[in-house]
Design goal:
The structure holds three protein chains of three kinds.
Chain A lengths: L8 E14 L2 E14 L3 E6 L5 H7 L8 E3 L4 E4 L2 E2 L5 H7 L4 E4 L3 H4 L6 H11 L5 H14 L5 H4 L9 H13 L5 E5 L7 H17 L3 E6 L2 H7 L2 E6 L2 E7 H6 L4 H7 L16 E11 L5 E11 L3 E5 L6 H9 L6 E6 L2 E2 L9 H6 E4 L3 H4 L6 H13 L3 H14 L4 H4 L9 H14 L4 E5 L7 H18 L2 E6 L2 H7 L2 E6 L2 E7 H4 L6 H9 L7 H9 L5 H7 L13
Parallel strand pairs in A: 3-9, 3-10, 7-8, 8-9, 14-19, 14-20, 17-18, 18-19
Antiparallel strand pairs in A: 1-2, 1-4, 1-5, 5-6, 10-11, 12-13, 12-15, 15-16, 20-21
Helix pairs in contact in A: 4-5, 4-7, 7-8, 15-16, 15-18, 16-18, 18-19
Chain B lengths: L2 H19 L3 H21 L1 H31 L2 H8 L3 H18 L1 H4 L30 H37 L1 H15 L3 H12 L3 H28 L2 H9 L3 H9 L4 H24 L11 H7 L12 H29 L1
Chain C lengths: L1 H30 L5 H6 L5 H11 L5 H13 L13 H36 L4 H15 L2 H15 L15 H7 L1 H27 L2 H8 L4 H38 L5 H11 L2 H28 L2 H4 L3
Helix pairs in contact in C: 1-13, 5-9, 5-11, 6-9, 7-9, 7-11, 9-11, 10-11, 11-12, 11-13, 12-13
The chains are: A alpha/beta, B mainly alpha, C mainly alpha.
Chain lengths: 565, 353, 318
Amino acid sequence: MTDKTKKDILLKIRNLKIQGYTEENWIDIIKGVDLTLHRGEVMGLIGESGAGKSTIGAAAMGYARDGTRITEESSIEFDGMELTTATEGERRALRGKRIAYVAQSAAASFNPAHKIIDQHTEGPLHYRLKKRMEAQEDAIDLYNRLRLPNPEEIGFRYPHQVSGGQLQRAMTAMAMSCRPDLIIFDEPTTALDVTTQIEVLAAIRDIVDQFNTAALYITHDLAVVAQMADTIKVLLKGEEVEEASTKEMLSNPKEEYTKSLWAVRSFESPQRKREGRQPLIQVKNVDAAYSAGPKILDDVSFDIYEGMTVAVVGESGSGKSTTARVITGLLPPQKGEVLFKGEPFPADYKDRNKEQLRQCQMIYQSADTALNPKVKISEIIGRPAKFYSGLSGVALKNRVDQLLDLIELEPSQYYNRYPSELSGGQKQRIGIARALAAEPSFIVCDEVTSALDQLVAEGILRLLDRLQNELNLAYMFITHDLATVRSIADEVVVMQNGRVVEQGPKGEMFTPPHHPYTDLLLSSVPEMDPDWLTTLLEERGLENLGEAASNKINPGDKKIMPQDA
Amino acid sequence: MSIFVIGYYSLLLIASCLAAFYNQRSAFLMIFSLTLVSFIVGIVGGTYWLQFIAVLTGVIALAAMVSYAFREFLILIASTEMAKELRTAPLTAAFGMFVIFTYAVAGIFAPWIAPHGEAEIISSAFAPADANMLLGADQLGRDMFSRLVYGTRNSVGLALTATTLAFLMGSFLGLLAAAKGGWIDNLLGRIADVIMSIPSLIFALLMLSIFGPSMPVIIIAVSIIYAPRVFRLTRAVAGDVVVMDYIEAAKLRGEGMWYLIRREILPNSTAPLIAEFGLEFCFVFLLVAGLSFLGLGIQPPTADWGSMVRENATLISFGEITPLIPAAAIALLTVGVNFVVDWMLHRSSGLKE
Amino acid sequence: MGDILGLVGKRLGMGLVILLIISIIIFFMVELLPGDIAEAVLGQGATEENVRNLREQMGLNDPALFRYFEWLKGVVMFDFGRSIVTQEPVMSVIGERFRNTLFLATYAAVIAVPFAIILGVIVALLRNSIFDRVANVLTLTSISSPEFFLGYILILFFSIKWGMFPAIASLNDSMSFFELLNRTFLPALTLVLVVTAHMMRMTRAAIINLLASPYIEMAKLKGTPPWKVIVRHALPNAWAPIINVVALNLAYLITGVVLVEVVFVYPGIGQALVDAVSKRDFPVVQACCLIFAATFILLNLAADVGAILTNPRLRHPK
């Protein structure tokens, strides 16, 4: 990161107001935001979804997305040129050459019909900055600096032939192709795994340093922004909350909202132990696969004791969700079995009776697909109660009210509503109530907080913890976010490529020695320390991080101490 | 320079100025282009052509005004929810609804509206229109207008029945295939593929050649031909719903197949299904009209628009538009339904964005 | 490359299987005829003697499966049997007619396809403008109108009132090519009107869908001028849906041809089919149906194969 000396002002945004067109009306999305960016400065724009960060990013290029418009009162000045009054031709001349954009999904933003390098050289050729051969050599040089594998030939592939993390770096290289003054990074690592994210973060930071480019780094991840930015600006619902240098904001946030964001990862439930409890669910040596496909789970075994939370961690493709499907009976295992209170559970859910089905409930990640949009809340929650306990009439209504109370939603307000009227957090609470309505002893929580903003997720975790204490529920908490694990888990199971790599009480898991994969996972999670990334790279070197490293590790490896890595 | 020409141009010019003054950009563009086109056509083709364009414009303007009035009428009598949706309806959709309404009235109240019976011979062949017969007589001396009105019952009724049958079959099987999956899904899909690989008219002709052109045969043949299309759509829509987590949650609860279909899948599939019904009706209607036109559909003396076109076809060579009237009746209904369906599809796809 | 060949091969195989199944359906449908075929054909003159002779003559006494294979064998060698009505080989009756229909369809396609695609692209680019909306209404009207409606209107104006083109499209061998075009102009125009509307709407939908892709927005954000965005970024990805649209509509053309031929009394295979159906001349009916079905399947196949071949992900596998 560069030190903040008073260099020239590159981008000056004053009173930015943007409106969006929904349901026949124009409504304010951005309500008067100011922003000043100096040459070579990296500013992080942070806020929850809906705060308008992406829209501001696009506006910095003078570009209004489909269905939005920048109002006349706004002023966007780039290097002395007023963008709101400039012609479209003048604005277009800036894009790609002096201001570049890196989108959230590289796979969708690259044209599938052209090679990567052809799309890369399009900019320099169009603006007549280089000739074709020069541009290609420059591209290969950039790929090298960004530490892409096979830099000489990777550019000559098509986008769908390259992996997500590599494609994201290729897009960063493409943004660099004309050596712009400003790059806008729009959530570039949000869709990537934790271990892949590290490589991309390191790459972006390096290249921005090397070319002294200014950058707007848009994200909702606090720890990530702490690594990348000199200055941080916090947004909430289209308005600015606070702005300060990174160090200052981390140590001394002023506004309440900012403080609440920073405090988000502070919740931690006390560790429970196995003494005095019975095993509830026991997964024994399970192998599983989908119809004719390759093996997804390989000899998976772990136990869940009543009233405790077992967090199952792993990256995408590790088999966490598949394990849940085996336990609930959606996917009968090829080998092994699942025991409930010591008795084997019928492998296929269709063979289980009502009482058995009742015991094991599931809460889903995406509230949009988890609740039937055409059914009222009262029925969503009421149906399981009716189905399992035979309640009806007044008794049913009372039960529904009771459940709504339990999830901290006012019964009279929510009884007759439809899911579309609720926010993400509220919908997730309804999902919890639906699971509770069956009076289960065990609930599978499949990435239930992954789609929620930090603050809302925190609320859900606290609720789940409270319910667990009140109702003696056991949870299997599937997640890829280690901070969540630290918050609520009693025991942890780490999975990689369908195998259990390590398992044990939370305390043990977070202290060494551990399995190299756990080690990699733990170290790949960004911390709230602005120097975390730098320190990590110095300690381990990039070869021992990221995709490349995780491919080298096997589930069968022995445990190690961090300094052995 | 006749009064007509002067009057026509002045009207257009005044209208364009008004539109420009009130900043109605699209209206201005339309009216002014119309003026330019009339001007050119008038010079090239003469007064006759100008009259033609004037009549055409007049008809369109009339249709627009009727649609507008009808839409306001519907908004007034509809419930608040429906009224909100109706307000977004473009003029074309309102026009379509008006057409459907008119045809429905004609069909239901046919015996009261038609002055004569459908097979009554009241005059000589091809007699011109007079006080008794609004549109003149057909090739046997029957009143065209009455036959037209009764034709609504026969043609539209037949198409409606066949569409409903096709729809019931197709959607039921589609829902079943989506809910069950597995071999049933595959088998039904393959059968649908095979049936859809035969062009509809050809298949209908094949069946009619064997079983003879009677009403039941037509209905069954047409339903079999169009059921696969409905099947495919229902299967696709229900398929999208079936992979949702709330379906999985319901399955895990132990809910039975019928509950799933009735309470979880169906309510989320209705909008596209209704639009599909409209579309299928159009296809069916055009197919039946085509068959009747070929002489292989509804048999005389039953009044049916397709066969009426065929019977009066010779009049074309005399420059009479009589055979075009039943054909226009067919086109008008199809256009109307298509406009309404177009609006519905527009809304449902717009909502997704 | 092997991936693609495999996919294409599979698709071709499936097409063949479907054609076979349809041939079975066509053949055995006649078996479903209530009563006796020979009786139905002879109608009034159905004495026992005549019926027996006709059955012998038509080979109806052999088992059904045997007759099917005989028929199939003949079909492959373009021998469709004999017409019940004229006793002439079916092939001689419909061979020339098939050529005529092909000519008419090609005439219409050659005009319609480029016109529709270009219009469709323009309308997609000018989405929601007044031009687009007027085009929408016009095309919707066109596809809602039965072919005979359009055909008669055209006859009324172009032929009767203004005498520009002949109403009846009769052909003979001695015509020059230009005169041929002249005679068949009206029926071709009718077909063009119907098919263009469909094609234009589908092209418009496909292009609009394409233009909403993230990589198009990315191209704009790189500062690519609009014309280049269309030509370099949108077009290469547009071939797949456009080819699909064209092939599907050419298939649709087949159905339209029948009605148009009847309106204009054009000596094509559609007219032959309709006549055969009214006279219950089964061999001719079976032959015509098979030919239509085969063409239809072939065009649908072309649509699928085209989609496979133009998909960049399949052309350059991992």
